[in-house]
Design goal:
It holds the Pfam family DUF3574. This is DUF3574 domain-containing protein. InterPro entries: DUF3574 (IPR021957). The protein is built from 5 helices and 4 strands. It is α+β, with helices and mostly antiparallel strands. The protein folds into 2 domains: 42 residues, no CATH class; 107 residues, Alpha-Beta Plaits (2-Layer Sandwich), CATH 3.30.70. Strands 2-3-1-4 form a 4-stranded antiparallel β-sheet, with helices on one face. A hairpin with a 5-residue loop joins strand 2 and strand 3. The longest helix is centred in the C-terminal third of the chain and has 19 residues.
Length: 162
């Protein structure tokens, strides 16, 4: 038979971890009876943001800069000119642009790694139809101008205030 001796601090740590997993909350909350049920916590978070901001949509566009057929990547200056000439007139209230490194699988199954940009625009939900046309125009023009397959798009519901 194997005997293992656990020191008092180690035993206390194991009990604390067991309580954390068993109750779903920090041990101090469990020990002192202050742990709130998950539904109540979610309700409190909802109530704390009620009335803060208005319903918006946050659209994220993912622009790659690598091109096919041995053509050089789209230079930063050229991309920034596209943003200034095409995107800004359609979203003059503001946008956010972040540079990154991306990868994706093309139609031939090849994985492409390239410098990329994530462009984020926020707009009120009631402008969604008009903004959708603008966004699709931007995506289509970028693809046809630079002979690319796609510009990624993700739309997220948001509460925003400025």
């Amino acid at each position: 038979m194997l005997h293992i001796r656990i020191s008092t601090p180690a035993a206390a740590a194991l009990v604390a971890i067991a309580l954390l997993f068993a109750t779903g909350g920090p041990v101090s909350e469990v020990a002192y009876g202050t742990a709130a049920p998950a539904a109540a916590t979610a309700r409190n978070a909802e109530q704390s943001t009620e009335g803060r901001g208005s319903p918006y949509i946050s659209t994220h566009l993912y622009f790659g800069t690598g091109r096919h057929g041995g053509k050089p990547p789209i230079p930063e200056e050229e991309f920034m000119k596209f943003v200034a000439d095409v995107v800004t007139p359609r979203f003059p209230s503001g946008l956010t642009l972040q540079e990154g490194r991306g990868q994706w699988r093309d139609k031939d199954g090849d994985i492409n790694r390239e410098r990329s940009y994530e462009l984020t625009v926020l707009y009120p939900v009631e402008e969604a139809r008009t903004r959708d046309r603008d966004i699709e125009y931007i995506r289509h023009l970028y693809c046809t101008t630079y002979e690319l397959e796609s510009v990624g798009r993700a739309d997220v519901k948001a509460q925003a205030s400025f």
